[in-house]
Amino acid sequence: SYELTQPPSVSVSPGQTASITCSGDKLGDKYAWWYQQKPGQSPVLVIYQNDKRPSGIPERFSGSNSGNTATLTISGTQAMDEADYYCQAWDSSTFYVFGTGTKVTVV
Amino acid sequence: QITLKESGPTLVKPTQTLTLTCTFSGFSLSTAGVAVGWIRQPPGKALEWLSLIYWDDDKRYSPSLKSKLTITKDTSKNLVVLTMTNMDPVDTGTYYCAHKAWGSGSGTQYFNYWGQGTLVTVSS
């Protein structure tokens, strides 16, 4: 089965850059998507097709995907960005796979 | 405006069957390219995809849970139903239904609208 691994936590100071990685076998050959989930809320899509932002998502959110790693970058991190982040990929045998999740703390 | 809402029991006993309903608006499951999926999240844990149904009644299931799951749709009532058999305490969690991005290509395999989720507890 296909698996995606993320670091459990990332800490960032306000205004700094947070990078969240997502690792999977030949992930760069697939699309990666990223969701933000705040406590008690449903996930919200922040990046689709590796590096595209849905309407309404701030420009400080960006994505990349190459090799075995996809990366979500939050530039100029704000307190409101504190949340759990999940990557997702699609595989023809496992179908929809979510990453293990990363808690972003703004300190 | 696309909205989805999950409904069902909040408490089920071990070995019982869970039936969840997703009622949606803003789109039709009779339109080519449309699909609705179910995702769950145990308390404090990661998201886990369960199942998906397409407009043409094609269905997909998580390989690890396939034997427990059945997904159906009622296009006239704009709803999707997920049943999960032989419930166990490890199945406790929040269950979400979500709209998959329109289309069938590899670039559309994600969920762009989510319901609010419903918490299901499995306990005797």
Verbal overview:
The complex is a heterodimer of chains A (107) and B (124). With 107 residues, chain A is an all-beta fold. Chain A is built from no helices and nine strands. Chain A has strands at 9-12, 18-23, 33-37, 44-47, 61-66, 69-74, 83-91, 95-98, 102-106. Chain A is globular and about 40 Å long. By secondary structure, chain B is an all-beta fold. Chain B contains no helices and eleven strands. In chain B, the strands form two sheets. In chain B, strands 2, 4, 5, 6, 9, 10 and 11 form a seven-stranded mixed sheet that branches. A four-stranded antiparallel sheet of chain B has the order 1-3-8-7, with no helix packed on it. Chain B is globular. The termini of chain B are far apart. The A-B interface holds A 1, 30-31, 33, 35, 37, 42-45, 48-49, 54, 86, 88, 90, 93-101 and B 37, 39, 45-49, 52, 60, 62-64, 96, 101, 106-107, 109-112, 114-117.
Defining key terms:
heterodimer, A: 107 residues, mainly beta, 3-stranded antiparallel beta sheet, 9 strands, globular, B: 124 residues, 7-stranded mixed beta sheet, 4-stranded antiparallel beta sheet
Average of per-residue pLDDT values of chain B: 97
The Cα radius of gyration of chain B reads 14 Å
Could you tell me the strand content of chain B as a percent range?
Answer: over 45%
Order of helices and strands of chain B: EEEEEEEEEEE
Q: Tally of extended strands of chain B?
A: 11
What low-confidence regions of chain A span 5 or more consecutive residues with pLDDT below 50? none
Number of strands of chain A: 9
Q: What structural class should be given to the helix and strand makeup of chain B? A: mainly beta
Oligomer: heterodimer
Q: What is the terminal-to-terminal distance of chain A?
A: 36 Å
Helix fraction of chain A by DSSP (H/I, runs of at least 4):
under 10%
Please summarize the sheet with the most strands of chain B.
7 strands, mixed
Largest interface: A-B, 25 and 24 residues
Query: From the alpha-carbon coordinates, what is the Rg of chain A to the nearest angstrom?
Result: 13 Å
Question: What's the story with the biggest beta sheet of chain A?
Answer: 6 strands, mixed
- End-to-end gap of chain B: 40 Å
The assigned structural class of chain A equals: mainly beta
Question: So how many helices of chain A?
Answer: 0
